[in-house]
Amino acid sequence: MEDGIRSQLTATSRLTLLKERDASWNALKWRETRDIPVLQGDIIWELCGGIFAQSSLPPEGTLRLFRLPSQYRNIQASSWRVPLLKNSREFTIDPAQDLLVLVENPIVIEASDKTHSHIQIQVHLRSVTTGRVHPSVINVISFLNHNLDMRRTPRNEANPEVPMSLQISGDFLGILFISDPGRDNIAPELVVWNWKTGELVLIRSSCEIATFTFLTSRYLLVGTVMNGFTQVTEPRLLILDMSRPSTIKLTLTADYVCVFGFPSFDPVVSPVNIAIRPDPFPEWKLNIEAHIPFSIVHEQQLLLVTMWVELEERKKKVSYDLFVPANILLSCVTTLSRQNSNSRHMINWDTWGSTGTRFLKSPPHSHVWTGYVFGTKFGSLIKPPKTATGQRSQILQVWDFNQLSLKRAVALGFEREHTRFISDATLVRDEVLIEAVRTSLPYSVTTRTLPPSCSPEEPAFTDAMCCEDAILLVNQTNNQRRNLRVLVF
Q1: What is the mean pLDDT of residues 22-44?
Q2: Of residues 325, 294, 305, 293, the one with CA closest to residue 406
Q3: pLDDT in tens, 95-149
Q4: What are the helix (H) ranges across 28-178?
């Protein structure tokens, strides 16, 4: 933990609150519950920095934001709205920097010869509290422009669909424009800017790029699930160096620091996708205006890498999760830099993955409500079989990969009710893997049965998400109405 900048509490008072908070999380004993109604139909949403933000699709012209409360950190619940652009397509937020990033609907700009058309995308930098141009850029640049090259213009498609993934880390804004090269005539493209200056830092284009995240203020982590040359399933994580900004568009493998290999999959398995989930991002800082007594320290950052593959004969998709602390990857990069090793270094799975990670068949978690990781914690809902009375209780689990806490608990012989400490190795044998995968990163699992529903009409929860001060449970009624139940710590 780190102390809040403007907290008026003494060190003794902060320590007392911290111990009480840790005890509540360790026992999964929340202090209160609140409900947040979720907009109906298609929505875009974000959970970041203790704020849940949502808007309808197509945007209704307003972004609705709800600040989650905290009993122990003296944060009051609040809600507000900010205006959106009429043609908004995507957004992300960084409440610590009061930053709202809005992306307009892509527009096709046809070339005169009809052969070199491009898709124009504008990115606006606003305040998350007011919706106005962000004060850090008001005298520099209020929006960013980017063009995606196309081989030909899609017929009757002035506003093409271009799925995208946005991330903010400190001064950096990264956007991955996701596409199917065969269908959309454009390759996936990853772009990073310094959003405060408008400087283009990095641009990579490749059919292999599937996901990314910021590892530090210098290094970018990119995930691939397919070998671009052989077209076979070959998950990898590549480290890119952002310390030398460049406006030149490169392929993914043209220049990288190193690549982390994964367990080998059977050649008959088809690659589907890969995703990296971290929260918060490495450059996350406390808002200096906030009177918060303490916050989580981000040296220990858990990355959850999910891989989906398909068995061609059965058309069956399966997924695997790799839980890996960010410092495991960074230690390898640091070692290479000390050795003055050349770039494009290959680090085999046996070198880095066996003891520093935990590889599992995916435990229950959503692929839509993706806020299931925060810090070193992972939240999951378990659905056991129905009882003899036909009722089905729901079990909440929180896995914690905080290695310092685990070592301290084991050394002192701590035992906690409803908590298991797992240090034995896991051996995953599966027909899609060439060899069994053995991993042994320790973690703890804390379990609590959720209280029964208040009424028979209340639906069961489907998914769990977590943040620094709360666990959020998603439910959906038969008429498709969604709701968030917030368990406040």
Answers
A1: 93
A2: 325
A3: 999 999 999 999 988 877 666 778 999 999 999 999 999 999 988 888 999 999 8
A4: none
Return the closest-CA partner of residue 287 out of 4, 96, 2: 96
Give the pLDDT of residue 222. Answer: 98
Closest by CA to 48, choosing from 216, 215, 279, is 279
* Cα angle, residue 52 at apex, residues 67 and 9 outer, rounded to 5°: 30
Q: Which of 214, 124, 210, 110 is nearest to 155 (CA)?
A: 110
For residue range 348-398, list pLDDT tens digits in order.
999 999 999 999 999 999 989 999 999 999 999 997 666 555 566 899 999
Residue with tokens 């900004």: 245
What tokens appear for 246 in the block? 């460049």
Q: Which residues pair with 173 in a beta bridge?
A: 168, 193
C-alpha distances in Å from residue 163, one per residue of 90, 91, 281, 360: 9, 12, 21, 28
Q: Report the b/e string of 332-364 with b at 16+ CB within 10 A.
A: bbeebeeeeeeeebebebeebbbebbbbeeeee
Q: What is the pLDDT of residue 476?
A: 78
Residue located via tokens 């070198």: 351
- The yes-or-no verdict on residue 181 having pLDDT over 60 is no
Is pLDDT at 71 greater than 80 in this prediction? yes
Q: CA–CA distance from 390 to each of 439, 447, 461 (Å)?
A: 38, 22, 17
CB 393 within 8 A of CB 383: no
Which DSSP string do the residues of 266-314 spell out, in sequence order? PTTEEEEEEEEE-SS-TT----TT---SEE---SS-EEEEEEEEEETTT
Q: Which two tokens stand for residue 399?
A: 């896995």
Joined together, the tokens standing for residue 153 give 């213009």
